[in-house]
Amino acid sequence: MRADLDIIYDWVPQGARILDLACGDGVLLEALAKHKNVSGYGLEIDPDGITGCVKRGVNVIEHNLDDGLSSFSDNSYDQVIMTQALQALRRPDKMLDEMLRVAEEGIITFPNFAYWRHRVHLGLRGYMPVSKSLPHAWFDTPNIHLSTFNDFEHLCRDKGLIIVDRAVGVGDHRGHWTSRLWPNLFGEIAIFRVRRRTT
Amino acid sequence: MQFMPDSYTEAAGTHSASTLPADSVGVITPEIAHFDTPLSLACGKVLPEYDLVYETYGTLNAERSNAVLICHALSGHHHAAGYHSRDDRKPGWWDAHIGPGKSIDTNHFFVVSLNNLGGCHGSTGPLSHNPETGRQWGPDFPMITVSDWVESQVRLADYLSIERWAAAVGGSLGGMQVLQWSLAYPERIANAVVIAATPRLSAQNIAFNEVARQAIRSDPDFHAGWYGEHDTVPKRGLKLARMVGHITYLSEDAMGSKFGRDLRSNDLNFGFDVEFQVESYLRHQGDTFSTTFDANTYLLMTKALDYFDPAAIYGGDLSRALAPAQCPFLVMSFTSDWRFPPSRSRELVDALIHAGKPVSFASIDSPFGHDAFLLPDERYHAMFSAFMQRAARELNLDTQANKEVTS
Question: What InterPro entries does this protein's entry cite (chain A) (predicted)?
Fold first, then answer.
């Protein structure tokens, strides 16, 4: 599994009911169902991903995340997970609200634009970064809302959310000590676990 | 009555020589099951006895666990796959999806396809003899609902000693029967595939059905449904009904790209004969249908569509109606279908989600409107077969097939 999925796997409690937004071919949901007795649905828009889910026996709903989560009622899940999709949404902030309407806790991963390699691309060489986590050229990228580790933390603070956990992935691995110390600089993938304050 | 499925004819390719395609289930002979036990119907009447004509493809395994039920749509019938003779020009209406290596893979599954009660292709219906009066049933044939069909299909399952279907599968009105199975007999289906269907008809759907019915009923040859005794057929009415129906099966784009504004000849005639190609096509479809389909059956089937609404007894709450369902669902719709558009399938999917049922949903990009469910399509096939293969795997059918191959 991808580094971010590996970390998320550990953050999902046994027997949880979850939604996996942009679930890809369902590899995370399959592992969670098999080993942690987790149930729920994946949402995906890519035809190959959807077929992949069905092959694995993962429940998948073809759905455009920009249309919101109106099919899901308030507090109907334990966790909502969204990996590597935040940056491609029309309104990432609204989706964060939606996720934390449907569940008390959300897990979000996205490419950290402030990763040092990205900074080198832009700051020194003067080009939009192209990397493993940002593989597209500027003209055909689906990523319309790039942000940094710090930016996201800021948004969570503005929304009054509790950051339960944060981690970074670098390449296919969990980040080592440098990225834990300076995640905004050394983390390639930002991974957040956030919770709304109970009123 | 000769088999001639409506627009279905275009779904399947034709074959030229007397050799059948390698991925065909081959030459098929329909069978008839007779039932003596009276069937109580939703309308309050009782059908004392009846026949169901059906076909099977593939081989039933020793555990009788690999049977798949095919439920047909408005003008469908039991002949879903294969050929009735080597000289048949066209295969059954769902040949694109039933056969070795196809979406419903007959290497794994034993497929059962029947003609529903009230039909006109061999099962007891308005054309049959009424044992109580000695006349043809005609318009006296009781109104049949989707749940009545499922009851009769349960008896067919019992007759074939099939305790539990590996899957029940259907498109359009067939999908409604699958839905009804999952509610009424959840322990008797292991998987449900509901394609291009809806949990209930919209006012517009019912309106189109009513136009079709009025076309038939106002034909002077209809004779209040006793046309058989008058040696007539309400052909004009049936033709009109079919023409209206056919418009709703195709998308605007499909019609546009197929016919555009093409004329049959170069000049305008300033008259009311056929001028545009689309007129010619519709008239041909209507003419063919009017000689091969029974008017009373058409009336009855459209009513079954109108009446279907499993949520009605729960105050419209579909997710409550779905509470008894147990099996995984695959729901598919087609983007250009305006008869039962993706939003109607999504209604069903959302209710299943609310009820916490296992469901997967895909909206297949297709220009062919409602008819797309009959046609081959790469993504449709990929989804359909992925779901069926997983079903086979979970029921341990693929290992059995492998065993048969190796032994």
Answer: Methionine_synth_MetW, SAM-dependent_MTases_sf
- Give the strand pairing for B46-47 and B31-35: unpaired
| pTM to 2 decimal places | 0.94
B337 annotated active-site = yes
Q: Are strands B50-57 and B31-35 parallel, antiparallel or unpaired?
A: antiparallel
Catalytic residue among B337, B345, B366, B371: B337
Q: Does the beta carbon of B389 lie under 8 angstroms from any beta carbon of chain A?
A: yes
Average pLDDT score over residue span A187-191: 93
What value of ipTM does the predicted structure carry? 0.94
> Is B108 considered catalytic here?
no
pLDDT of residue B273: 87
Which backbone phi and psi does B146 adopt, to 5 degrees?
A: -60, -40
Is the CB of residue B24 less than 8 Å from the CB of residue B82?
yes
Contact A71 B379 (CB under 8 A): no
Residue B405: what pLDDT?
45
**Are B108 and B401 within 8 A, CB to CB?**
yes
**CATH class as words, domain A3-195:** alpha beta
Residue B71: beta bridge partners? B170
Interface check B360 vs A, CB under 8 A: yes
CA B358 to chain centre: 24
Contact B390 A54 (CB under 8 A): yes
CA B254 from chain centre, in angstroms, equals: 21
Residue written as token pair 């058989």: B228
Determine whether the interchain pair B363/A62 forms a contact, defined as Cβ–Cβ distance below 8 Å.
yes
Percent helix, strand, coil in chain A (nearest 5)? Answer: 40, 25, 35
Question: In chain A, where are the structural domains located?
Answer: 3-195
Chain A residues in contact with B349 (beta carbon < 8 A) = 61, 71
Pairwise CA distance, residues B5 & B288, whole Å = 9
Q: Which token pair is B224?
A: 């209040």
Please determine, for residue A24, whether its predicted confidence score (pLDDT) is greater than 60. Answer: yes
Q: State the number of CA atoms in the 13 A half-sphere of A75 facing the CB.
A: 2
Q: Are A76 and A98 in contact (CB under 8 A)?
A: no
Q: Are B289 and B283 in contact (CB under 8 A)?
A: no
- Contact yes or no for A61 and B386 at CB 8 A: no
Catalytic-residue membership of B24? no
Taking every pair of C-alpha atoms in chain A, what is the biggest distance, in angstroms?
A: 48
d(CA B196, CA A145): 36
